[in-house]
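batch_manifest entry 22 of 60
target: CobQ/CobB/MinD/ParA nucleotide binding domain-containing protein
source organism: Anaeromyxobacter paludicola
requested by: lab member K.T.
priority: normal
notes from requester: please return tokens only, no post-processing; we will run our own comparison against the previous entry in this batch. if the run fails, retry once and flag.
--- input ---
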Amino acid sequence: MSAPLVRFDDALPLLAREIAATLGAEQLAAGIVLRDATGRLAFFSRNDISPVSAENLSARLRAVLGPYARPERVLVDPRATGAEAILADSRTTRVIAGEHSIRLIDRRIVGADWVRSPAPAAEGPPRFVFASLKGGVGRSTALAVAAAEVAREGHSVLVIDLDLEAPGLGSLLLSAETLPEFGTLDYLVERKVGVPDDGFVADLVGPSRVPAGGRIDVAPAFGRRSLEHPGDVLAKIGRAYLETIGPEGAVATVFDQIRELVDRLVDRARYDAILIDARAGLHETTAASVLGLGAEVFLFALDEPQSFDGYSTLLASFAQLAPPGAPLPEWADRLTPVQAKAPADPARRKEFNQRWQDLVMRVGPSRPAAELGGEIQIPEGFTEVPWDDESTPDEEVVPVDRPLMQPIAVLSDARYVAFDPLRRREQVDEKLYSATFGDLLRRVGAAVESRGEEAP
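--- output ---
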């Protein structure tokens, strides 16, 4: 019987197991695993290995990893050409591979922004990102209602649409007369040939006529030019996600470009809150919105298996940015799940909450050191932290009072199925929306009021 074919999911644990068994866990922990763009693996040792041992282990790794062994060098001695640069590379991620914690350099052609370090909390007005892994969850409607509520309280709010392939906020909140010349899509396209000037940035924003005591400004994804030239829109989208290279060779991914765009829009005027609509799914632009803007992030989900399957992937990705044993990072407390179209029955919402908490405990970011009963002792020189989920009670992984463990609800409400606040103005009447969106609005409102109290 032939050996089972190694698949992508098998390769990393197999390499870690083989290195630990042959060189020892300390050498595995000290070295770096490189996964190239095709998924093939190599181990860069920080300690010298004799030629005979290296040859034997290389042969063993090729046999174990099959197609996922890098053909030219699967085991690299620290004296080899190029090894010093890899071993000094700071862009490593600690991940769990089987029974071991390893340091990984994961080279991706697409998706690299998902392994970028999350930005610290942004200074200035509070920022809120509305994100989801599927469309049709009511994310943009909730954002528009939140904008109306912030403005009803007499504040100024900027709404930014980053859902470039399924934009909606421009048509929801702007009329033909107030639609700006350009949209966020145009900024990302123009950014490929230079840095747009301040006048161009000003032309990205238009005022909404949705009733408000304060002010709602909107930076739509599509501006007037795109609506006048719809045949060019796909050509623009095809270029919006490209990297740019500065005059001194600095590379700016879409992550960097979106962060730059949002910072410039926020700097234009004094706003009390910034509400950002992220693209649905796990696209590169979603990484920029969720990780790169220093924002509070609302993660919208329906109570259905597809939502939990998708968030399993996203939460596991977050966990790789918050390694087990380390204190729970500050950014993790800026993630709040939202049960969208939730039932009015509290018992049914409680069932969703329990499933969400189970998911976070199973795959999500790790618990803080304080809850571990003291500082984690990490072996000198690295990193090796045992993965021991059998002896750790689930309820201790992330304390249930953390925002990530406390879903809030936006209730299902047929009155918001056809949302059109410019024509159906009763939909942005506080008397109508307060019961449906109350939890969400209180969360946004509290942050805005807190910011107002801090401002000089």
